[in-house]
Inverse folding.
């Protein structure tokens, strides 16, 4: 039976039901979002395989399976493309734990950083942020924002520990998180020493001991 031959009231109810059903369905990921994800993933792979100095928009476009004009419609040049890729990756790379124990949370945070720094993408990202690329104002600014945002994202670990009485009131979350990651970055970037879960656990124990000493002072 055609829609034209349906009773008008019934046809209206069918149309309404179909409209409601369509509204309940999840919207498909748009092509623009898929292209953006593919391009940013391609940037990271190029940073891993060739490094910042050798990265070109042509190579990124080829790896992402898009035309370079598609890239230039969204990103004005190579550096804005790299900044977007770095920022997008850092925003989701290390989950923030909430185990109910500050000792476990800090260990997991530190272990997550160790694991990321040991991964090909992690090494490439850090190398890019500390290489000649930092002479580019946009990338230098991105580096500052990335490290600042990462510290802020981890701050709730400290706030929850204060609420549970595991850390003394007034503990500076930003400084504690910086103290946690500093020995890990020092080994990786300055001395070149290897880092592992033991390094992470010692860093967590050290900041907890320092916090306890301040509470007992």
């Amino acid at each position: 039976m055609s829609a034209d031959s349906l009773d008008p009231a019934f046809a209206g109810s069918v149309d309404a039901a179909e409209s409601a059903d369509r509204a309940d369905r999840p919207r498909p990921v748009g092509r623009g979002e898929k292209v953006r994800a593919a391009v940013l993933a391609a940037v990271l792979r190029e940073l891993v395989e060739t490094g910042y100095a050798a990265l070109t928009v042509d190579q990124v476009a080829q790896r992402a399976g898009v035309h370079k004009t598609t890239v230039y419609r969204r990103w004005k040049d190579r550096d804005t493309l790299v900044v977007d890729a770095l920022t997008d990756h850092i925003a989701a790379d290390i989950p923030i734990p909430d185990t109910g124990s500050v000792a476990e949370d800090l260990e997991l945070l530190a272990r997550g950083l160790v694991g990321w720094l040991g991964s090909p993408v992690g090494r490439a990202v850090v190398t890019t942020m500390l290489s000649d690329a930092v002479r580019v104002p946009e990338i230098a600014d991105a580096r500052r924002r990335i490290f600042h945002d990462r510290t802020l994202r981890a701050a709730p670990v400290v706030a929850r520990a204060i609420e549970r009485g595991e850390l003394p009131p007034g503990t500076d979350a930003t400084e504690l998180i910086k103290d946690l990651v500093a020995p890990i970055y020092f080994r990786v970037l300055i001395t070149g020493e290897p880092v592992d879960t033991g390094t992470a656990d010692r860093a967590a124990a050290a900041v907890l001991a320092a916090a306890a000493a301040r509470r007992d002072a």
The chain has two domains: 31-82, 93-216.
